[in-house]
TrEMBL record:
<dbReference type="InterPro" id="IPR016024">
    <property type="entry name" value="ARM-type_fold"/>
</dbReference>
<dbReference type="InterPro" id="IPR038765">
    <property type="entry name" value="Papain-like_cys_pep_sf"/>
</dbReference>
<dbReference type="InterPro" id="IPR018200">
    <property type="entry name" value="USP_CS"/>
</dbReference>
<dbReference type="InterPro" id="IPR049407">
    <property type="entry name" value="Usp38-like_N"/>
</dbReference>
<comment type="similarity">
    <text>Belongs to the peptidase C19 family.</text>
</comment>
<dbReference type="GO" id="GO:0006511">
    <property type="term" value="P:ubiquitin-dependent protein catabolic process"/>
</dbReference>
<feature type="region of interest" description="Disordered">
    <location>
        <begin position="769"/>
        <end position="795"/>
    </location>
</feature>
<dbReference type="InterPro" id="IPR033840">
    <property type="entry name" value="USP38"/>
</dbReference>
<feature type="compositionally biased region" description="Basic and acidic residues">
    <location>
        <begin position="900"/>
        <end position="910"/>
    </location>
</feature>
<keyword id="KW-0788">Thiol protease</keyword>
<feature type="domain" description="USP">
    <location>
        <begin position="446"/>
        <end position="835"/>
    </location>
</feature>
<dbReference type="Pfam" id="PF21246">
    <property type="entry name" value="Usp38-like_N"/>
</dbReference>
<keyword id="KW-0645">Protease</keyword>
<feature type="compositionally biased region" description="Low complexity">
    <location>
        <begin position="599"/>
        <end position="612"/>
    </location>
</feature>
<dbReference type="GO" id="GO:0004843">
    <property type="term" value="F:cysteine-type deubiquitinase activity"/>
</dbReference>
<dbReference type="InterPro" id="IPR050164">
    <property type="entry name" value="Peptidase_C19"/>
</dbReference>
<keyword id="KW-0833">Ubl conjugation pathway</keyword>
Amino acid sequence: MDKILEAVMMSPHSKVVKQGMVRRVVESAAQPLDSSQCRAMFHVSTRLFLLGESQFKRDAGREVLEAFARHHQREFEEFFEVRFVLGLLRNGYPPLGRRSPQIFLYLETGLRCLADTPSAPDLFHLLQIEVLRIVCERPGPELCEQLARLLSRCPRCVPSGNLQTVFCQQLIQTIRLFQCQSQQDDDIVTFLERVTKTSGMLQTVWRANVATIFPSLKELFIVISTPGEGGSVPSNALASVVQYVPLELMEGAVRNLTNDKNISDPQMLTAICRMIDWLSWPFTKNTDKWVIALMKGVAVVKKCVILIEVTLAKIEEVFAKLFYPIVREGALSVLSYLLLSFQQSPEAFHLLIPQIPPLVSCLLAEGSDSAQQCLQQLVELIHCLLFRFTGFPDLYQPVLEVIKDFPCPSEERVKQVLSQGAWTAQRADQVSLCNRLAPKSETGKTGLVNLGNTCYMNSVIQALFMASDFRLAVMALKNCDLLPLMGRLQRLFAFLEHSQRPAISPDSFLAASNPAWFNPGSQQDCSEYLKYLLDRLHEEEKKSSQKARGQSESQASDTLIKRMFGERQQERKARIIHVETVGSLERVEPPHSANEGLAGAAPSARASSRAPPQSPDLSASLSVPDLINFFLTPEMLTGDNKYRCQRCSSLQNAEKVVEVTEGPHYLILTLLRFSFSMATMRRRKILDNVSIPLVLKIPVRLPSRGPESVGAREVGSGLGAGPGVAAEPEGSAYVSLTYDLASVVVHSGLSSESGHYYCYARECDGEKPPAGGAGESGSDDPAWATPTQPGGGAEGTQWYLFNDTRVSYSSFEAVSNVTAHFPKDTAYVMLYQLRPTHRVEPGDCCIMATEGLRSTEPLDRELVEAIAKDNTLHLQEQERGVRHRAALSPSAAEPPVWLKDPRRRERRPTPESGTDGDKMMGCWEQVGVPAV
């Protein structure tokens, strides 16, 4: 019979004739045969099964083998015995190799035929050992697919007992090596299917023996937490493993990992980063749930530095996955967690800002249900983060433009979303330890690290630093041993000037300068901080002069702070003086009226509680000159508030006027934005827009001199008395001082206890004198009426926006329009620099020339060495940072082939229109990516 079968297979007859002959051979299997004839049939059918040149011959060999094995089971047991099976697995069936898929199909057929025979236990025990050995040899996806098929159809081949745990661990080690090398769509789909079937072997074992799950997960963690050898990294195919772990075991598994003392922080960091890479793997479930659960577990044990590193290293990669429908759902889930948990700093959110407009455009163009759902969640998330991290107008404008047509969530909904999943760093300064090593700003300026709601200090420091005369005077100071706070300010200024870092940490200065009543980590009032800082610096220098030089208190009071920011003012009975722009140097409470005023002034004078008789019309457009003139409006002292005359010792009606008698080098004005509402019994913020003049001119009252004084003549032309105004005493005079806007600190938010501060600033070099137009005191066109027009001084110099670590170019137009574009962002503190005059006369002590304030002396040698040492350290940190990010982001260089933009994939040449194109369309539909 065997000779007949061979002759039929080798004959030139048609396939139909051969099929008929094979059918007759199969039917004859029921006839009695001796052992030699049976053995011969087993040999020829095996040869056809394994070595047949066509699928027809291989199928014929399988049919004949199954028929004769069923009817002659004892003889087949003798043929398909342990040594024969072992030979197939170890040596193959020459010329067929031992790892041929056909051999596993043959073994599967033979085992099914002998499943209930006495020899079956020995065969299955052999197969259990051999399957484990094969897995330990790290077979590829094709062979693993055959093994998976064998184990699914012959479950008794699965290793048993303690070997099950070893089998699962070795299978994980095998899957970590899987890589798809082909770029063809069919090959990609085949690779993904093979990986899925391979990981299914783990599910088979885990279902039968739950005790193997935790050792398997431990092995998986070891794989993904170990640095790759020779630059190799574990395959993202490992993502197919965790989908089979029951979710009810996730909490216990995460708890065991995060509390394991043998797992180092770098290992945990690497493991989480690689799990995030798994989000690019399609067809799997629960990957996002495992990533989030592990990060929550790390937060529970307060290892927040790991979470900071992970977020900054991977958030851009996660965001990029939203472009692909095949992995969008899991990526959006992880992205939401990363952003909502990372609320101690805007850095993570700001990394995504440039990528948001392209993504929104892409999702709108896609128009699928997946894209629409993603857009709704993404826009809500963006609104919540814009609410949380206010005060970045230059960054947010493009984002607001692309989402303007989407509904904005209510404030209650925003607060509800922001309250989900936020974790807090162990220490406020931990955030500064993990900032990405970004390149230095193209402006060349250095930022300041936010140490936990310290933007109130950072904005003030940058404003003072950009006050060039003050900065140079501070850096020129010598022997600051007796001036500890001034010495730290000098060091901070020097690092801001010469550091190569994009931002430096002012932790030392914060510790020395923060008022004792400021709660660490809480938002504070920048104006209050500025006042406290200048007072501290002034008192420190005054005490130092008294102690070191034996000066009297009056002599020692002439400090650097007083020379730069000091002022003199007096109250007297006088006429009303109408001026172009006037400046007051005292800080006052807001007017008590229906429309509360916004005027304030320098932070170094005693407050006045007077109530002006009339409020300005706040329904109209407000300006700084309007508010200052309102503040200086004479106050009528009548009724219960009459003035006690010292001459007659009686109460008299009087008029009280505040006048400036000495102009400071730097004029600081504060708009009192925060008031207490009696209706709600809460402090509120006044959001009125106030226009800020680029040039501010104030009249300063001069000491009494002769009637021919220059000041008197100037005042006479433009500041004469009006009708009903009392005449001035003979010899009194005023001079107009011109101030250039140097910096503006903006508060973004709705409360004094929250929000964000940032600073617009420029350097006023003060080299050019007033040059007509707005620069002349007698002009009919006030300086603040056309603030964008250059009028001498430093109006044309470059503006910068200082926002903690971020420093960017800006303009006066941005300063003027910030509240119009962002209603919660309002100017709060303004610093004006006195423009030098070239007409200084003896006795005009109120006019402070800038000569002598600048210094070109070199820095102290110790400070120079400290800066040089830190710059060298920064370069070393940059090198380490590059290597560290490369290790955390192995997939960033080349995305998986199935995530490449299908619109950019090259079409293969097609001999017939539509044939291969339709095939490509079908392949990509299988993996969920729209084809071209």
